[in-house]
Amino acid sequence: MDNLTPKRIVEELDRYIIGQNKAKKAVAIALRNRWRRQRLSDEIKDEVLPKNIIMIGPTGVGKTEIARRLAKLAGAPFVKVEASKFTEVGYVGRDVESMIRDLTEISLNMVKTEYMEKVQERARALAEERLLDYLLPQPRALRSAEAEEDKEKYRQTRERLRQQLREGKLDSRYVDIEVKEKAMPFGVVSNVGLEELEINLKEMLGNFLPEKQKRKKVKVPEAMIMLLQEEAGKLIDIDKVTKEAIERVEQTGIVFVDEIDKIANKGSSYGPDVSREGVQRDLLPIVEGSTVTTKHGPVRTDHILFIAAGAFHMTKPSDLIPELQGRFPIRVELEPLGKGEFVRILKEPYNALTKQYVALLETENVNIEFTDDAVEEIANIAAAVNDKAENIGARRLHTVLEKLLEDISFEAPERKNGKLVIDSIYVRTQLADIVKDEDLSRYIL
Fold this sequence. Notes:
single chain; alpha/beta; five-stranded parallel beta sheet; 19 helices; 11 strands; about 50% helix
């Protein structure tokens, strides 16, 4: 984080997201302020609250991607939720606090993975010994002190087997191993419709469930993975992992609340607006700062960064309740994307769509090349379709490119020639029906 200055953060975001400099600048400052806060004295540190952000803009302009890339850049726990989910009729089993519980689970998995990577080498050695025990059990006769010669033969055989294991010569062999599983203390049978209930109960009860040994017959590589995970789990201090995970949520967690415009109140005091306002009031204490109970312990939300987003076609941010508006002091508008931005999106980012398709088809030994005039034509068609149909921003490029390369992708395994040039003529030929037809929904959804 020391090197992640606001300018550097924007530069990193520029590698993946075209334009939207106002939004990038706002999130870069918010992230840097976290670094600054950690260097304050304890007496003032708790008083410095994050400046939450509302991003305003149509779909497909980069709102989610900016938030997700920011979290990845900071190595912070990140969760995306749709605000409209909490207003759906018949929506059961989720409350607004569930976003914090989900964030805690994500953080726990992040920290657990990091700790497991640190003990991988030792865990692999232990897992290998266990696997060899299953593959070549030690005869009882060798356990006496008198059988020294037989012990040496066993040791040599075991070492040869170890070498074969490491060289992959045993990969097709099956082995019976014992693994630990959480056991349900009461009989939840896996009938139709009850599988999810059993999974949810296991997750909810967590560490309170007793463990039981279960034998499984699996191939050697799968057995190695299962034993490796089990041994790594034994080597880490789960209490320490949990404590660090909760601390990360509280100090660096990011919650992206999408479709916040869908819970904005349009002014009526009855019907769905009552439900929308109810969700806002449920959301308020979490954004203001409260303690949420999770199965891993209490989590304070005071310093979690909330980034909200919405198109606000039918509403505006001022339609949110005043208290919630006050908790999102920074508002940035994202610009709609047109042909110019589409050209840059297709060519410039590290993960540009054209680069993705080139890499995908290279796996079939088919090399495709997009000429500059082809990129211009693709961008032009995407922009035209957005104008005539629903404007879904840069997501339109996915559908246009998929249609454009449909035949090549289908025939790729059988193609003998390795080089294909995609030029503007090819683009116009492949997409001619889409350009001519007014009912674009028949071709691109």
